[in-house]
Hints:
Layout: E1 2-7, H1 15-25, E2 29-33, H2 44-47, E3 52-59, E4 62-70, H3 71-74, E5 80-81, E6 91-96, E7 99-105, H4 113-132, E8 136-142, H5 165-175, E9 179-181, H6 182-186, E10 213-218, E11 227-230, E12 242-245
Parallel strand pairs: 1-2, 7-8
Antiparallel strand pairs: 1-12, 2-4, 3-4, 5-6, 6-7, 8-10, 9-10, 11-12
Helix pairs in contact: 4-5
Amino acid sequence: MKVATWNVNGIRARSSQVVHWIDREEPDVICLQEIKAGPEQVPEPVATIAGYHAHFHGSGGYSGVALLLRDKTFGDRPAFSHPPFDHEHRIVVAEVGSLVFASVYVPNGGKDFPAKMQFLRELEAWAGVVQRERKHLVLCGDFNVARTFADVHPVLRKPMVGQLPEERELIEKLLSHGLVDVGRQVEPDNDRLFTWWAPWRNMRERNIGWRLDYIAASRALVDETVVCKHYRDVGSSDHGPVIAHLRDTPREP
């Protein structure tokens, strides 16, 4: 099962890039963040892309997420939903059997840090509910937290929002609900594994960035064959996509 996530930083500005990327990669699950568009504003090539059940969840020029499931892989269109803690169009969920897929865009927290922490607490609690229901979560998106010091370029490491201990603690609690940080599982020692670069001073070209975008998958979907790649050379968003190959079906406990 091929799972992809990308903060596109405006789907109207990058619709052709998104379509080209999907056509090339053909993921089974696509999670998009910061689409900055309501469903009626999504450009036609993306809104009606062939072969996918798509749900766009946004409003105007801020925030917004999308989730697309390949019909050849999953069959009939699933029910898409939003947990009660959703605000500002930040999470969309779909269930297929015992699998739960979610595209999430955690608040940045620079202007309202308490709201970010509240969202993370409720996201963590929700993941716990999914685990207790014996379902298998695949949670993808822009977490807006660099999990460890290794997830920030050395010249950018500082005590600031996105790198604070209390944020990182909540990410660890989230992962404790049977989830694997797939990117870090595959490349445990790579301290240049970044997905976001500030759009100035050639930061992207120099790979001076942060790792903010994650695929967190149920441990039952991750085995020794797992692959996860991060792409610095795709598209013009300030984020790069992440793509992982997970098990098609969960392992038996």
